[in-house]
Amino acid sequence: MQAMGDGSLSLARFSSYMRQDYLFLIDYCRALAIASAKSPDLASMGHFAGLLDETLNSEMELHRGFCSDLGITAAELEATNPEAATVAYTDHLLRTAYDGSIEELAAALLPCQWGYDEVGRLLEHRVRPDPDSFHSRWVAGYCAPEYRKLTEWLKGFVDEIGAVAPAEKQRRMQGAFRASTRYEYLFWDAAWGG
What we know:
Blueprint: H1 2-6, H2 11-38, H3 42-69, H4 74-78, H5 84-99, H6 102-123, H7 134-141, H8 145-164, H9 167-192
């Protein structure tokens, strides 16, 4: 994040990260769709559908635009081979989506959403706005009011459903959250070349 913030992140690293993140987002969208279907009420169903729409039609479009600017076609982007960290993370999310409860799934989805929101907040005032800078354009995407609003909703939803969940379900929620947090770290580490 420091390299993104100070503008020193290389195009090669950024390109590799964008390819892997795009693949991740495809399965993240699948998990969001399942979360919407598993939602306990229409309001939360609508919020998950909104998060799905924002991810599928805004965030992924941002990725396609960046990749196009880097000379990567949509076909090349979608044909990218996923790295081990990407596969591990998406397998965890999809396994939780299909086999877990809505409580576990929401907890598993939260670290990604919350983490990018925090990165956006951290870098928002460190990166000079510049429409020609991929650093600036990337940060702006995670500072958007819509993104922040959805993040705050998801945090509140996890708190709300966790507060009334039985102890065993709370334990599984915590496990799903911790696993996703670990996978977030491994994903970022792999993007850096670790």
